[in-house]
Write a sequence for this structure.
């Protein structure tokens, strides 16, 4: 029985280091290759030794697909391709291909240059890795080899994020990566057609959340920022350079303009301008409104938002600072946080999800005293606000996507086990017939598939059959059609039996039966024939029964003749003759006549 | 399978393919050469044009002074210019299911087809094709609407009168089908029917046919199309290019194994080498500027202009043109320049890699930034304040009949210092210039047409090996002006099938097979038997289900459960269902083994009689005859039904079922 196997190496009942192995139709695919922000040791990367103990992965994988540029989805890529060893194709969209190496380089710098780790991938390795990348366009069907094809769909979430459909023959898997079902200020909503995959592998970050409307959240956010700035406080918004940052910038930019505010807004890293430039060049990946107006006004050219310099953090007076990274686990955002944490006038707004182990996560769980490196503790006095701006689908969105794609099975990844449990129940309740899985890392889920067998049917046979069915076939009375399946090499052809004989150069063997049935019937031959005719006509409803002028009766293609016996004129002999093809009817007729005619 | 040809213009095609149950329109080209018969539409009042004499026939019998004007020996229609849209009478346009667009030049007739015809289908195009196509349509509408002309001349179209007219107007064909330009509302409505597609995207049409756009290398988002079912493949090749310009290279290999290849959109100037023309363009431009003259480049707002600007970007400094202003004037100039920068996915590799840096893919961004290139929506407003001479002006329309170019022709035409350089190949430059004669300005003809030439197409066809080629009749003979150049035509074996406007071609196609799916339960129940080495057969009895043009075979319904014994007696009297004919048989029944088998089943008294064709077996105890022949067996058995059934089964053991 054909089956599909799915094994998460990361993101199984967890958020971070997304990496999912899929075996389908004899092909092995790796979906995402991410790192875990919560760890600084081996657990940072997926455990590739699961695939093979000794060495390179090239011969075990047919392709690698990266859904988007977030490091928890691509952070382990250079390690996997250059240090473990993989030379096959890596697929990602153009924006991902453009932005991913920048974030990888950033990640490398923080890890190696700042933390002083060795045995990490180098800049050259990032470059070599990117050379193996094949860009993917939306909706383009990419033929990885003769059998394996992949197709990308728009996922929202961040610039260039994609969902992918993986297909071998009639079996298919859809992997969503991270997605967003509601359009935001800069991106559109995820969309997929009714592709009915065998499995839909969906993220479930917000499995239990049903978020209130985006507008409310935006209003809330602006109100909080505004209030803090009004009372002279400083607002820190930890973000990742690309993604949410642009959405929030658009939001603040328009708000500042409308309210004519003067407090400065800064964006911390040197990446900003570059990042915004990517958005300008990949404007076709943003939402409809931005795309429509970009010639008149490019939304990614900000008037109020300026570049940040380290020294500004100590400036007096209110300000708003966007700083990276988003989970306060390192870098500039953490530095600024340390400076501002002691003042209750200030505020930090966490606009996205924080992985366990990060400062961001500790803050959100309400810790007021943070242990920092070097055994110092930091007292948190500033206000901590959480605003779910990260563009993940919520429970409603996930259900909506399931309704869109109509999968046979659903698998949840990229979420917390408890929340998944809840969503799993909900999915199985709402969609009868859909099984839902939530494997842990290293746990394999096997899903049997039941592919139908494609066959070439001769058009003559198909048309003949369609003609029998009439314009509106009766669903209650299905007609059985007959054909001969010719199997030669790998081709399967279904033709009419006659054509099969001809094609295979076989002679037809006629098998005929003749049967004489004696009847006691004291009438003339012609009268007996009429009686036979009437009898058959009344019994065989739905059959063609004909009384022919040449003194025979025909039932379909079976001929009946009547003659008198030489000895006894009252004994009549009915001669029946039929071919093997009419065996059922012929046999029935001879038995019927043997019982005699009704008076 | 049939092909209906609605346009006679080989590079602005409009064909309709009927394939399986679908009706597919391939491109929607608008023949605009008709505007050459009209007087130019000046933006500002032109005393010269308004003073042109009206036309009166030589004998004075026919006078159409109001409608027709004479200029330098030729006659022009003084009316809003009209276009020649695709034929509307050949088939009912409301029956068209989909329209496939190959590039933005080939969609200009869309509103004539999708509006006011009952069309309810979908148009498929790539995103650049849609966006730039929209700009070109917007520009056209703008050109027409900003110079309203009250007069609409129709008398000259009268056959009797047209016959008497001189020169090219007399030869104009189909003049009654000519139409005025559409409105912006119609453009918007037509374009709202477009569904976007990406290269290599497989689009299913009604489950019957799959269509796929492929990169054609000619312009941003330009595509060729594959129209195929599981067994038949039609390739539609329209405007394609093998030269390295800005678009993604042409996908040639996907065109392989076509049953029919429809070939349109070859180069219109087969004798000119685009690279050479580009060089000539630059040197003429530099020469004129150095001599203190102005250069006018009539062009479309998208396409070759990007390459011209890129070429100039490299050329400006070396030619010392750093201080010369370059103007690009069009209502859509800004949009066109901006849009060109955001379609990285559709560009050639080295432009694509620029975006990763991130830098704009086209260098005209830098020309604009450094103020070397300025763009304006029209000659009024800002432009008139900043206009400096000598300068270079890129503006439309290349027919010289409407748009800002008319103004510059009137302005610069009288001085021999100035030069007009024609780069677009769609219009004969002599015809375009005719209503401006006499002209002192220099005219240079550097047509740049990057589409396939005959040499390239011959190589391509050799490579992809289609069974049949269909093409416009113009490609099957040398151009009329160069009738000795037999290299400027398609020579193929078998010869291509030519078409012209209003042709209906039956395409040489025999469909034999269709894809059907056997449900796994049915597939499992089949019993294959090897009939010849390597060939197995299995008889299939199944129920056919067809939905959305997809066919599925399901196992036949299980026979109704055996009714309780009480009713059993009646069952015999029920005639068998009229559904199951038995399979055909093949093979022969060999005498000796058959006798042995009979013996085994207790039939021992068999008398064998030889006949010319075989044997007759007389089963004496049972009073039954079996006639065995090479291709038939006949069992004559009168009243013993169980015996007959046994004999039947024994015979069947030797035979194969099909």
């Amino acid at each position: 029985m054909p089956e599909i196997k799915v094994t998460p190496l990361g993101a199984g009942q967890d958020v971070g280091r997304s990496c999912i192995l899929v075996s389908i139709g004899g092909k092995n695919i790796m979906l995402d290759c991410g790192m875990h922000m919560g760890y600084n040791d081996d657990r940072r990367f997926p455990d590739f030794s699961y695939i093979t103990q000794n060495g390179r992965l090239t011969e075990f994988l047919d392709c690698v697909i990266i859904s988007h540029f977030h490091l928890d989805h691509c952070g382990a890529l250079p390690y996997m391709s250059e240090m473990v060893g993989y030379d096959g194709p890596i697929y990602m969209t153009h924006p991902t291909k453009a932005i991913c190496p920048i974030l990888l380089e950033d990640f490398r710098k923080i890890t190696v240059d700042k933390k002083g780790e060795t045995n990490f991938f180098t800049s050259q390795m990032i470059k070599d890795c990117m050379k193996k990348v094949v860009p993917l366009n939306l909706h383009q069907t990419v033929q990885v080899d003769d059998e394996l094809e992949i197709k990308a769909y728009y996922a929202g979430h961040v610039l260039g994020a994609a969902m992918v459909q993986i297909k071998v023959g009639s079996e298919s898997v859809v992997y969503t990566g991270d997605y967003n079902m509601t359009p935001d200020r800069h991106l559109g909503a995820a969309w997929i057609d009714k592709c009915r995959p065998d499995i839909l592998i969906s993220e479930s970050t917000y499995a239990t959340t049903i978020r209130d409307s985006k507008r409310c959240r935006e209003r809330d956010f602006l109100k909080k920022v505004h209030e803090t700035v009004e009372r002279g406080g400083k607002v820190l918004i930890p973000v990742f350079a690309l993604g949410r940052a642009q959405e929030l910038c658009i939001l603040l930019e328009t708000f500042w303009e409308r309210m004519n505010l003067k407090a400065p807004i800064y964006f911390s890293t040197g990446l900003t301008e570059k990042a915004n430039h990517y958005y300008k060049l990949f404007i076709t990946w943003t939402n409809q409104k931005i795309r429509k107006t970009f010639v008149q006004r490019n939304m990614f050219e900000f008037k109020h938002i300026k570049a940040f310099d380290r020294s500004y953090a100590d400036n007096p007076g209110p300000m708003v600072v966007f700083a990276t990274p988003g989970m306060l686990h390192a870098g500039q955002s953490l530095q600024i946080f340390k400076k501002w944490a002691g003042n209750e006038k200030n505020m930090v707004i966490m606009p996205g999800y924080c992985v366990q182990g990060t400062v961001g996560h500790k803050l959100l769980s309400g810790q007021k005293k943070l242990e920092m490196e070097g055994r110092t503790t930091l007292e948190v006095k500033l206000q901590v606000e959480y605003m779910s701006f990260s563009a993940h689908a919520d429970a409603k969105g996930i259900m909506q996507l399931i309704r869109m794609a109509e999968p046979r099975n659903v698998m949840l990844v990229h979420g917390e086990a408890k929340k998944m449990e809840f969503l799993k129940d909900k999915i199985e309740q709402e969609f009868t017939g859909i099984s839902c899985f939530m494997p842990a890392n290293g746990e394999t889920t096997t899903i049997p598939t039941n592919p139908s067998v494609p066959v070439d049917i001769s058009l003559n046979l198909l048309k003949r059959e369609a003609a029998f069915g009439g314009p509106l076939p009766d669903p209650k009375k299905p007609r059985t059609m007959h054909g001969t399946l010719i199997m030669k090499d790998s081709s399967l052809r279904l033709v009419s039996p006659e054509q099969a004989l001809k094609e295979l150069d076989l002679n037809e063997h006629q098998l005929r039966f003749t049967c004489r049935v004696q009847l006691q019937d004291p009438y003339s031959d012609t009268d007996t024939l009429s009686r036979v005719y009437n009898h058959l006509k009344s019994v065989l409803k739905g059959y063609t029964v004909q009384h022919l002028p040449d003194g025979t009766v025909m039932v379909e293609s079976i001929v009946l003749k009547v003659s008198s016996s030489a000895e006894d004129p009252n004994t009549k002999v009915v001669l029946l003759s039929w071919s093997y093809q009419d065996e059922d009817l012929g046999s029935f007729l001879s038995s019927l006549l043997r019982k005699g005619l009704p008076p | 399978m049939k092909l209906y040809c609605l346009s006679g213009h080989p590079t602005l095609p409009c064909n309709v393919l009927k394939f399986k149950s679908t009706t597919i329109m391939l491109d929607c080209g608008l023949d605009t050469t008709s505007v050459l018969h009209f007087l130019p539409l000046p933006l500002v009042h032109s005393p010269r044009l308004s003073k042109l004499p009206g036309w009166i026939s030589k004998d004075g019998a026919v006078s159409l002074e109001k409608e027709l004007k004479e200029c330098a020996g030729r006659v022009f229609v003084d009316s809003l210019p009209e276009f020649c849209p695709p034929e509307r009478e050949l088939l009912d346009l409301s029956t068209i299911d989909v329209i496939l667009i190959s590039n933005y030049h080939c969609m200009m007739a869309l509103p004539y087809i999708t509006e006011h015809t009952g069309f309810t289908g979908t148009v498929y195009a790539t995103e650049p094709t849609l966006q730039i196509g929209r700009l070109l349509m917007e520009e056209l509408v703008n050109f027409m609407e900003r110079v309203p002309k009250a007069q609409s001349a129709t008398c000259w179209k009268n056959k009797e009168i047209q016959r008497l007219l001189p020169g090219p107007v007399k030869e104009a064909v189909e003049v009654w089908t000519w139409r005025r330009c559409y409105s912006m509302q119609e453009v918007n409505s037509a374009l709202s029917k477009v569904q976007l597609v990406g290269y290599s995207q497989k689009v299913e049409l009604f489950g019957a046919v799959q269509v796929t756009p492929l990169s054609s290398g000619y312009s941003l988002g330009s595509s060729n199309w594959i129209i195929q079912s599981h067994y038949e493949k039609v390739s539609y090749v329209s405007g394609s290019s093998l030269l390295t310009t800005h678009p993604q290279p042409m996908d040639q290999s996907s065109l392989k194994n076509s049953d029919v290849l429809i070939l349109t959109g070859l180069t219109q100037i087969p004798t000119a080498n685009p690279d050479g023309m580009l060089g000539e363009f630059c040197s003429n431009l530099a020469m004129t500027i150095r001599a203190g003259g102005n250069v006018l480049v009539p062009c479309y707002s998208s396409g070759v202009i990007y390459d011209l600007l890129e070429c100039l970007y490299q050329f400006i400094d070396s030619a010392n043109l750093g201080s010369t202003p370059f103007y690009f004037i069009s209502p859509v100039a800004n949009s066109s320049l901006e849009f060109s920068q955001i379609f990285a996915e559709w560009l050639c590799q080295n432009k694509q890699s620029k975006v990763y840096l991130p830098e704009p893919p086209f260098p005209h961004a830098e020309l604009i930034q450094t103020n070397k290139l300025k763009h304006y929506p029209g000659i009024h407003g800002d432009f008139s304040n900043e206009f400096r001479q000598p300068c270079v002006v890129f503006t439309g329309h290349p027919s010289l009949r409407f748009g800002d170019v008319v103004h510059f022709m009137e302005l610069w035409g009288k001085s021999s210092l100035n030069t007009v350089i024609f780069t677009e190949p769609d219009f004969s430059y002599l015809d375009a210039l005719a209503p401006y004669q006499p002209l002192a300005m220099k005219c240079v003809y550097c047509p740049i047409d990057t589409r396939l030439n005959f040499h390239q197409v011959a190589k391509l066809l050799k490579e992809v090996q289609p069974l049949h080629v269909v093409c416009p009749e113009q490609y099957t003979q040398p151009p009329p002006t160069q009738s000795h150049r037999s290299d400027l035509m398609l020579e193929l074996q078998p010869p291509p099938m030519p078409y012209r406007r209003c042709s209906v071609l039956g395409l040489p196609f025999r469909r034999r097979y269709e894809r059907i799916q056997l449900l796994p339960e049915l597939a499992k129940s089949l019993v294959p038997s090897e009939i010849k080495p390597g060939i197995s057969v299995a008889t299939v009895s199944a129920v056919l289900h067809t939905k959305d043009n997809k066919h599925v075979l399901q196992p036949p319904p299980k026979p109704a459960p055996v009714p309780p014994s009480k009713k059993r007696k009646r069952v015999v009297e029920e005639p068998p269902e009229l559904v199951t004919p038995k399979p055909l048989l093949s093979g022969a029944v060999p005498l000796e083994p058959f006798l042995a088998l009979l013996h085994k089943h207790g039939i021992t008294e068999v008398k064998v009689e030889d006949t010319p064709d075989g044997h007759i077996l007389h089963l004496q105890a049972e009073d039954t005859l079996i006639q065995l022949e090479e291709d038939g067996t006949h069992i004559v058995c009168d009243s013993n039904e169980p015996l007959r059934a046994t004999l039947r089964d024994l015979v069947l053991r030797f035979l194969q079922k099909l």
